[in-house]
Amino acid sequence: MRRILILRGGALGDFLVTLPAIAVLRERWPDAEIDLVGNAVAAALGVQAGLLTRVESQHGQLWSELYNAAPLSEDLEARLAAYDLVLSYWPDPDGDLRRRFPLHPHQRFLSDPAHPLVAPAAAHYCAPLMALGLKTDRFLYPLAAPAGRPTGIALHPGSGSTRKNWPLEHWSTLARWLRAEWSHELFVISGECEPAGLLSDSGQPWRSLPLNELLNRLASCRLFIGHDSGISHLAAAAGAPCVLLFGPTDPRIWAPPGPRIAVVQHEPAMESITLGQVQAAVKAALGDQR
User: Fold this and answer.
1) What is the pTM of this model?
2) How far apart are CA 164 and CA 125, in angstroms?
3) CB 39 within 8 A of CB 58
């Protein structure tokens, strides 16, 4: 393979659970150009890691042509025909994409549903590669490793959906307990989905940091506490031990896999998770590191 195109939409977490599949392709074809069309901000992490050659936003007008009934423009058809492999995770309920490919006899087209059907999610996105004879059981791709002595506890009280969030008053109580029990500094992660000043009295704010900077900071944390969110997947990729709170979503699919990931869940509502459950998970993760 000389040129590979990956079509992958979604948010940060959706990209990160696709990284193991991208890593398999890079390992098999180390000199190939591997391009991705999707979440360009998140996928820039893949370029930084040397897994991707270039990235482009899926929201460009050009890419909407793939779902039209009309023939492709000459420019887009020529561009797509230059790829030896097209791997698509874009939604395709009516088979619009599948009917477009392959564009020539030597092109391979592989696809899988956008929503994972097996656990963990990364295994789902690796499954199409078996058609190429490629397998893996590494379903968490490390983007960073702890440098030096880890310090501080990072809290991320938000996510992409309010139904996946533990109540803020519980986070405030947890932060007070952490300060009383441990000497570690607290950091509060927030972004555009969360209000400004979130838990401003609980720790140093890390607001709307560039993803590569947040990745590096998380790599130096002693612990990360969060929800089912893309930032939790980033923390896991940074190598930080994680305590993750789950409610309505399935942690078998959506929690990052690995021995340093602890899940606290009480279905169906997040408010059913007790402070004691979270404290027990934190104590197990931190041990005697006071």
Assistant:
1) 0.95
2) 23
3) yes
User: Which residues pair with residue 188 across a beta bridge?
Assistant: 155, 205
**Residue 29 has which token pair?**
């074809």
The one-letter amino acid code at 57 reads S
pLDDT for the residue 50: 97
The DSSP H or E segment spanning 261 is strand 261-265
CATH number of the domain enclosing 86: 3.40.50.2000
195-208 residue pLDDT tens: 888 888 889 999 99
Q: Identify the domain containing residue 219 by its residue range.
A: 153-286
Taking only the tens place, the pLDDT of each residue in 39-88 is 999 999 999 999 999 999 999 888 989 988 889 999 999 999 999 999 99
Largest CA distance in the chain: 66
Q: How many CB atoms lie within 10 A of CB 161?
A: 14
- State the burial class of residue 50 (Cβ atoms within 10 Å of its Cβ: 0-12, 13-18, 19+): exposed
Which domain-ending residue is among 64, 99, 132?
A: 132
Sequence-distant (6+) residues with CB within 8 A of 148 are 220
What 3 state SS string does 159-193 have? CCCHHHCCCHHHHHHHHHHHHHHCCCCEEEEECCC
Taking each helix axis from N to C terminus, what angle separates 230-237 and 211-219, rounded to the nearest 10 degrees? Answer: 50
